[in-house]
Amino acid sequence: MNARIIRNAILIAIAATILTIIALVIWLAIYAAAIDPGHQLAFYGAYATDNGAKLGLIVSVPIFLGAGWLIGRSASTKIDGAKRGALVAGIYILIDLVPAVLFRGAEQTDAQPLITGYVAVMVSAVIGGWLAAGRSTTVEPTP
Predict the structure, then answer these.
(1) Which regions span the lipid bilayer (predicted)?
(2) Rounded Cα distance, 50 and 134, in Å
(3) Average pLDDT taken over every residue of the chain
(4) Could you give the 3-state DSSP secondary structure of residue 20?
(5) For 53-111, how does the pLDDT look when each residue is reduced to its tens digit (9 = 90+)?
(6) How far apart are CA 61 and CA 122, in angstroms?
(7) Could you tell me the pTM of the whole model?
């Protein structure tokens, strides 16, 4: 893989991370305003803490399917597209895992939801890259 692909993978992973955070904030705002309004802020903080892993999983799968597709569009083979999707997911995992371990500590971090989420992100990004790869980007002229 060349430097351009790695740079694009980093940018796409950062964008996917930001989109995931924005989607979670929007969901929490909808929950607080329309689904279960009228509670103190601590109630919604506890809801976010208790359900963050599940919500993150639901939100991140389509986002990383799109991220894998985006990076895999220029790949010439399905395997290369899948590798590019895995690269995006791997960069995201580093972006997400390092702060989680640094701020909470390795012994305080619940590994099961993290592993489940990371496997889902990896699989969806690899599938997205695989689906996008090998497609012609030029239009064939009609005879």
Answers:
(1) 9-35, 55-72, 84-103, 115-133
(2) 41
(3) 88
(4) helix
(5) 888 889 999 999 999 999 999 999 999 999 999 999 999 999 988 887 787 766 666 77
(6) 9
(7) 0.83
Are the CB atoms for 20 and 56 separated by under 8 Å? yes
- In order of 37, 99, 133, the CA distances from 76 in angstroms are 50, 35, 6
Helix axes 78-104, 3-30, angle to 10 degrees: 60
Separation between Cα atoms, residue 87 and residue 84, nearest integer Å: 5
**Identity at 77, one-letter amino acid code:** T
List the structure tokens of 93: 């995992």
**Hey, CA dihedral for 118, 124, 130, 132, is it positive or negative?**
negative
CA distance 125 to 123: 6
Closest by Cα among 46, 20, 29 to 118? 20
